[in-house]
Design a protein that fits this description.
With 60 residues, the protein is mostly helical. It contains 2 helices and no strands. 70% of the residues lie in helices and 0% in strands.
Amino acid sequence: MFFKGDNLFDQKDVSNIGEEFERGLAAYRGTFDRAQIKALRTAFEMAMMNTLVLIEGRLR
């Protein structure tokens, strides 16, 4: 995937952020169904991976 070698962030970091995002969506009971929450979390994690790669690139 995006994260290789000695990076500041890894897939576990993105997954933890995704879990928090999912919990936030679940707090709005009845607004999103399970499939929507899963799709939104996946899109959010993809965006976070891209963002973290950009941040790492600028820090190096």
